Amino acid sequence: MRIRTVIAQVADEMGIKIVNGVLSAEHIHIFADIPPHISVSEFVKKVKGRTSRKVQQEFPEIRKKYWGCHFWGRGFFSTTSGNVTDDVINEYINNHLDAHKTDNEINLSLD
Questions:
Q1: Domain residue ranges in the chain
Q2: Which of 30, 50, 52, 98 is deepest in the core (most CB within 10 A)?
Q3: What one-character-per-residue DSSP string does 44-77 give?
């Protein structure tokens, strides 16, 4: 839940609207409306940096586990919704939540 909150804070500060998303133990899906003057990589960099720093500050057991290692993977994948409708993206995210639901998955939608 803390990562979800930090992602929401970063998005709000940058003027980004999170439309939908899911956070699982191994990866994260975010469907976001990002203004054209902000690059996707800038948003991802801030999210990864801030969440890593905050979580490791607030949860010492996690800091010990990731000492000298990366909290997040090095890369990311992004695409635009130009060839696919918003409904298809939302359906994919929602189906991912339903099909892979574990106690560790959290819906990122802020509604």
A1: 2-107
A2: 30
A3: HHHHHHHHHHHHHHH-HHHHHHTTTS-SS-S---
Cα(94)–Cα(33) distance, integer angstroms = 17
Tokens of 44: 């991802």
Angle at 90 between CA 12 and CA 43, to 5 degrees: 30
User: Residue 66: what residue type?
Assistant: Y
Other Cβ atoms closer than 10 A to 2: 11
What does the pLDDT look like over 31-87, one tens digit per residue? 999 999 999 999 999 999 999 889 888 888 877 776 667 788 888 888 887 778 888
The Cα 106–Cα 97 span in angstroms is: 8
Fold classification of 2-107 (topology level) = Alpha-Beta Plaits (3.30.70)
| 2, 34, 60, 90, 93 from 45: Cα distances, Å | 18, 14, 23, 23, 22
Name the amino acid, one letter, at 46: K
- Tell me, yes or no, if the pTM score tops 0.70: yes
